[in-house]
């Protein structure tokens, strides 16, 4: 099978009516590949949990191939990178979210699996106070090797992207529509600049309009791809609060700038802080401290790591070497590569954490400090 045939089947998998990302993953786990899903016998398909005879019939009669072939032409023409759920370059943080999309479409050059990814969101009706906070926050990220993500919407989102472009910081916009357009249209010039130092990403096919129902889906991608989310300014309801709630459900760290109790567009941030759904911050230094991203701490940890490295042996040494070779790994991947049982792996990971050598990340991911 050619690479194009493989990709056509993968795109077609996302086009089966009534089969979302959760069921698609179930199909993949039983069939092994997108191609195998479509070739599987009907009587076996209907036995897969969550499928049944009705959905199995839909799969067997799916007409998604023609649309997938059209999308492939668009992808090749526009130099877009398709990221399938099982691909090694699919965003690792997002992959461990239960409702992660099966396919993403990315245009740009950012490393979506960068070691530090920070989301910045806020109201579409940003005040001068909110814009200043946002610009100051981005300025404080210079030299920190952080990838910034936002939604390219009016207000705080586009303010963050503009500040990143000005300070030459890599930043990615998560879209609620296809890559054949930019919404709002007035942000197209900004989006074009982002592609050369960051990029644009979406789960939606070309031709998908920026319909209202797409933006909560967009928000979950943003929440799932970051280590931490900063809410700069937000009303009591809206997209920023939805993203913060999703981030909390994904066990991401959420931060918020406080505002005056009389300010409508600080009310959302104040409520998040009041309800312990976000950490109150005054600057990036607070985020850095909570996340353990300070340069001094990293230097100290590196020193501890070097001093203890020679003392490692047995299973701890095996795990350490695997993380050193591969970067971030999930517990499932560590079990597979180390041939350790989940119980033995957990004990050894705990030992490495106590020695200051390993850090646990959201989604049962581990990396060296």
Brief digest:
Helices cover 49% and strands 13% of the residues.
Description:
The protein is built from 18 helices and twelve strands. With 369 residues, the chain is α/β, with parallel strands linked by helices. It has three domains: 3-77, 5' to 3' exonuclease, C-terminal subdomain (DNA polymerase, domain 1, Orthogonal Bundle), CATH 1.10.150; 108-291, 3-Layer(aba) Sandwich (Rossmann fold), CATH 3.40.50; 295-368, Winged helix-like DNA-binding domain superfamily/Winged helix DNA-binding domain (Arc Repressor Mutant, subunit A, Orthogonal Bundle). The protein has a nine-stranded mixed β-sheet with strand order 1-2-6-5-4-3-7-8-9, with helices on both faces. Strands 10-12-11 form a three-stranded antiparallel β-sheet. A hairpin with a 3-residue loop joins strand 11 and strand 12 (365-368).
């Amino acid at each position: 099978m050619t690479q194009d045939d493989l990709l056509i089947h993968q795109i077609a998998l996302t086009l089966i009516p009534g089969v979302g990302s959760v069921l698609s993953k179930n199909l993949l786990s039983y069939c092994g590949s997108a191609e195998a899903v479509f070739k599987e016998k009907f009587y076996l398909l209907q036995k897969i949990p969550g499928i049944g005879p009705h959905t199995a019939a839909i799969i067997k009669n799916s007409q998604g191939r023609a649309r997938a072939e059209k999308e492939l032409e668009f992808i090749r023409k526009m130099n877009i990178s398709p990221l399938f759920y099982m691909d090694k370059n699919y965003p690792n943080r997002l992959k461990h979210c239960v409702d992660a999309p099966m396919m993403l479409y990315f245009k740009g050059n950012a490393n979506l699996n960068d070691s530090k990814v920070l989301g910045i969101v806020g109201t579409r009706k940003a005040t001068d106070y909110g814009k200043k906070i946002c610009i100051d926050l981005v300025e404080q990220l210079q030299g920190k090797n952080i990838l910034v993500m936002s939604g390219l919407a009016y207000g705080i989102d586009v303010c963050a992207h503009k500040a990143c472009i000005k300070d030459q910081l890599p930043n990615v916009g998560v879209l609620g529509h296809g890559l054949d357009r930019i919404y709002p249209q007035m942000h197209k010039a900004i989006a074009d600049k982002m592609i050369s130092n960051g990029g644009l990403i979406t789960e939606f096919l070309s031709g998908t309009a920026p319909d209202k129902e797409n933006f909560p889906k967009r928000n979950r991608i943003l929440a799932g791809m970051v280590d931490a989310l900063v809410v700069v300014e937000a009303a009591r309801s809206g997209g920023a609060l939805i993203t913060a709630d999703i981030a909390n459900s994904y066990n991401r760290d959420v931060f918020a700038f406080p505002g005056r109790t009389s300010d409508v567009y600080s009310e959302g941030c104040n409520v998040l802080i009041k309800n312990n759904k976000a950490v109150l911050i005054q600057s990036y230094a607070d985020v850095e401290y909570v996340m353990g991203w300070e340069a001094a701490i990293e230097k100290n940890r590196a020193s501890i790591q070097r001093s203890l490295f020679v003392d490692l042996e047995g299973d701890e040494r095996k795990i350490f070497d695997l993380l050193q070779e591969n970067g971030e790994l999930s517990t499932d991947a560590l079990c597979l590569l180390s041939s350790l049982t989940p119980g033995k792996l957990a004990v050894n990971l705990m030992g490495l954490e106590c020695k200051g050598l390993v850090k646990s990340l959201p989604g049962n991911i581990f990396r060296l400090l």
